[in-house]
Amino acid sequence: MPLISDDLLTRIRDRFAHVDICPFQGERVFFENAGGALTLKSVVETSGFYAAIPDNQGRENPASHALVDVIAKARADMRDLMNIDEGQFFVGESGTELLFRLISAACLAAGGGRVLGSTLEHPASRSAAARWAGVAGMAHVLVAHDDATGTVEVAHYAPEITPDTAVATILHTSPVTGMGVDVAGIARAIRAVSPECFIIVDGIQHAAHGRIDLHELDVDGYVISPYKMFSRHGYGLAWLSPRLEAVAHNNLLNGPEKNWEMGTRDTGAYATFSDVVDYLAWLGGEVSGEGDRRARIRAAGAAIHDHEKRLTEAMIHGTGNLPGLAQMEGVTLIGGADNPAREGLVSLAVQGVDPAEVVARLNAEGVRTHLRKADHYSGNVLDPLGMAGCVRVSMCHYNSLPEVARFLALMQEIAA
Fold first, then answer.
1. Is the whole model's pTM more than 0.90, yes or no?
2. Domains in the chain, ordered, with CATH?
3. Among 219, 314, 322, 379, which is disulfide-ready with 408 (CB 3.0 to 4.6 Å)?
4. Domain Aminotransferase class V, which positions (predicted)?
């Protein structure tokens, strides 16, 4: 019995805006979630409400006090979502901007040694590590990921972990291959050799697809982009460990020493993230009998992972009388057909058909996917595979098996 039944899926879909109709295109299947997930209707309403409030935080009036309370609630919600009671959550311009900020502060605070990352990483963390390692006079070492599996493992990191590894970056899930990474295992391996290393995680792709447990991960920084987790554009979210929040960083003279936010932030950003956490707590209550809020959020993560696994299995191995991608002649799947690290995403190429044409033909039939090219965003994954591009098909837990079937029927025609 699936955790997300057909009835529950209908109620889930009803909570999201534009779930099956694009206001510009009309009816469509949304398989472009890695580029930005669907937005909760509650987030849309909350955004409009707070956009109209003229007051700032930190003033002596009722509206200002209310805004401060909203931010305090949001930070408590963030702790529930990511299972952590220490350190600091704050918002910034974007996930990319926050990765640059955390990595720069860590490199300058380290005062030497090595910065360790991997070739799987998105250019946000790789670019930040390369730049700030250079500024700080540190070596930037990249662990090679496994082209066949589309991920990087503890065994790949282990030979490069040295006592002078002062900063490490880890990608939680690849937005190109869709494969997750054992962050906790890599962090343990690093701590065993260099316990004081600052470990910073890019969780932007992972956030919508499963549980985030910062207590379990034992890292120093974690960054997400909430528009990829059912919220909206315009802000990023970071968590800092007590060690990292205490290092020297950009701040106002004579201001609070541990303040990491630059200027007055949008209270609506915090409020909309509370909407996301409230939604996950609701979903967890629908799929479990848990009473504790954090336990319900964990249950929601398990249900999301289970449902998305069913979707990707159907896409790869078929559903009903439709063959899956693995049975279609000339279709190549990045990371292979049976990969337990996969998180709601399938990247593919069709022999003899340009990936841009595949995306265009799907889009013409109302199935939204995305072209990844071997450029500065995806060349680190595609170049070693000898691929100029691929089609990224990215799902979330509100997608359905009938949507997968519609995609497969079209792919049969394209592959033929």
1. yes
2. 6-39+308-415 (3.90.1150.10), 45-278 (3.40.640.10)
3. 322
4. 29-407
